[in-house]
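User: Hello, beginner here. Can you help me understand these amino acid letters and fold codes? It all follows right here:
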Amino acid sequence: IKNDVKLIHDGAQRVAGVVKRLLTFARQQKPQRDYVSINELIETTLAFRSYELETNNTKVTTYFAPELPATIADGAQLQQVFLNLIVNAETEMKLAHGKGKLSVRTEAIDNTIRISFKDNGPGIAKENMARLFDPFFTTREVGQGTGLGLSVCHGIVTEHNGQIYVDSKRGKGATFIVELPIVTRPRQLGLAESEVEESQKAAKAKILVIDDEPIIRDFLSRVLTDEGHEVETVDNADDALQKVGTERYSLILLDIKMPGMS
């Protein structure tokens, strides 16, 4: 019974993690912006992750521009970006080598702050580069990644009028680069307050959940319904195909491995 309970608990934790990332990706929250130091945000993020970096044999080197200008941004959101990039690099290096080296650099170029995260992991195949920031795209084994981390990063950076991109070749590591505008006055943020509020209104989505496990299916349905969405559920691939053939959905969440048809 103890093992069964542990399996249920671990499964629930995985589902909760996926749902949390989905809601982060889908929910367009109004940023809480103030003057922030990018160097300090990265230092805090690295300190938060220090134990995992050490246990995963990841050596981190930092090169922080000493006179890096402050900028107006949502510090918590940017920390989420930095954490995702650090964890991604750490994971890829561990899977490839069992250890790794991560270099984090900040610099000011004209009116832009550039932050780079360079690792010595396996690199990224050329055919995957164009899809790297797409939601749910992942090259990892089932259960090792949701494919939402980089898409969340892209959304946050874009919301800050910045850009995120990667320089990589297979077998030669990867460098993820975040570029943010140096904002010193609130009016530089773009939209007026009324326009921002209008853009934050969450649209209700019609969602189809396909999973043969009733606990996961019911949990996803309940959480998404509580968020105001219209949710339909099915427990097999045949019914799912019939639904998709006759209905239009904003989002489909489906189990990869199903009885009869995966």
Observations:
- The domain at 31-186 is CATH 3.30.565.10 (Heat Shock Protein 90).
